[in-house]
Design brief:
alpha+beta; globular; three-stranded antiparallel sheet; 2 helices
Length: 74
């Protein structure tokens, strides 16, 4: 049985392709893009988990992305 990990990230209109390509290179598959609660776009991604270490890597990637979009150091 495949176990999945998930990631959500905001999409900046002027940089959409770069954001999607960045996550795709890291093995994330785009599942859906929806309008966020404040009017922007939010992308939902998934990828299969292959080990406990991979799950932790996904959490680290999500944490890094949230810092990047909040204006913190990446």
């Amino acid at each position: 049985m495949t176990t999945w990990e998930y990631l959500t990230t905001p999409l900046l209109i002027h940089n959409t392709a770069a954001i999607l390509n960045n996550w795709g290179k890291q093995g994330w598959e785009l599942v859906q893009v929806v309008q966020g609660p404040e009017g922007g776009l939010v992308a939902y991604f998934k990828r299969p988990v292959t080990s406990d270490a991979a799950g932790n890597a996904g959490l680290a990637a999500a944490e890094q992305a949230s810092r990047q979009f909040e204006g913190g150091a990446a």
